[in-house]
Amino acid sequence: MRIYILIAILFFTSLGLAQSQANYDESKVPKFTLPDVLTSFSGNPITNQTEWEENRRREILQFFEKQVYGKVPDRLDEYGFKLLEESNDAYGGKARRKQIAITLKKNKKTITYYMLIYLPKGNPTAPVFLGYNFYGNHTVTADPNVAITKAWVKNNEAFGITDNKASESSRGIRTHRWAIEKMLDNGFGLATIYYGEIDPDKNDFSDGVHSLFYRDGQTKPKTNEWGSISAWAFGLSKAMNYLESDVNISKVFVFGHSRLGKAALWAGATDKRFAGVISNNSGCGGAALSRRQFGETVAQINTSFPHWFADSFLKYDNNERTLPVDQHQLLALIAPRPLYIASAEEDKWADPKGEFLSTYYASSVYGLYGRKGITSKEMPKTNAPIQNTVAYHIRTGIHDVMDYDWENYIKWANTFVK
């Protein structure tokens, strides 16, 4: 418990000056009008599924792609998968473990990242939660057979990570964020990837997937090309290729926490193969409305993490009101597939109210498909989930992933896989 308290202290301390300057007063939220998700940029009303799919969805997706997260510049030349290790005796015999290498090739250059999979024994096509982890596959489990990442890792003294290298000392340090046995006991599998193997989380575009696509002399993406969030989403889609074709799993719920919640939402918006999307405390640039300017703002996130978004997003720093879109429209792109947004009561930086309002305003698109979303603008009480096709909860606690979250995600996802 002490190490998790220390981690929380280090996390909030690292936010430093940006947090101290953030607005946490509802009375100081500027008055704003949200762009209507069911009115096109040209002012035409959207009244049915066809108009949504062929007109409104397409133009919203293209705007986010070019002006917010950035466009993937080209197609891969090829990609491949290799089974590195498997066992039918993981988690005391209740799970099958697989470790897969995924290799992407472009312009005679390659990058390889690794996916750890646990499937309930006896059910090789079980539904799966797919999500990135922050420090390496070996950190989500105490399983000694899981390989330690060799990629660049952010230093963390509490985890014993120095010189940007993972080691045995960090094995299992994030087990509390991944309720693997709960998943297995409820018929779900887990597939997870260390996000730094796709693109290291630093403002340096020389050592991740971006570099595969560079033309001669290019050192960073063009203005409207992909930032790291878009790159991470791209990696999730390629992992889905493996899950779909080799393991034959059709029910994959893409999950992410914090910045990786942003990546999960963008992956779900751009790749309709994902059966559902779960965003845990994703905040600014994820589920939270940008126009509220509560907690982290567009200017703060672009300053602190300039590599996450396309450079074209910079024009909206301190200028959210001119955005033709807002994050409720990102959530609407996932319709009619199941969507779960979750907040934490003490996580003001991620603006829980802004996350909730996004789910409410996205729900009108779900209505076009006869799916039930969030029907009231009044936030639910803490620890009182709303579980429709569009689901939401706010729980007690801090910016983290807890058993409470997974218990609700599993219960909710179960209703869509039977």
Task: Describe the protein.
The chain is an alpha/beta fold and 418 residues long. The protein is built from 9 helices and 10 strands. Strands 1-2-3-5-4-6-7-8-10-9 form a 10-stranded mixed sheet, with helices on both faces. Helix 4 crosses helix 5. The protein starts with a helix and ends with a helix. The N terminus is likely disordered. One of its GO terms (molecular function) is carboxylic ester hydrolase activity.
Short description:
With 418 residues, the protein is α/β, with parallel strands linked by helices. The protein has helices at residues 2-21, 49-69, 180-185, 228-245, 259-270, 298-304, 327-332, 352-368, 403-414, and strands at 78-90, 95-106, 109-120, 128-133, 189-194, 252-257, 276-280, 339-344, 386-387, 390-395.
Order of helices and strands: HHEEEEHEHEHEHHEHEEH
Radius of gyration: 20 Å
Strand order of the largest sheet: 1-2-3-5-4-6-7-8-10-9
Question: Mind describing the biggest β-sheet?
Answer: 10 strands, mixed
Query: Which residues form runs of ≥5 with pLDDT under 50?
Result: 1-15
Q: Given the C-alpha coordinates, what overall shape results?
A: globular
How much of the residues is beta strand, in percent?
Answer: 15-25%
Query: What would the average pLDDT be, to the nearest integer?
Result: 94
Number of E-type strands: 10
Estimated structural class: alpha/beta
User: Number of helical segments?
Assistant: 9
Helical content band: 25-40%
Distance between the termini: 37 Å
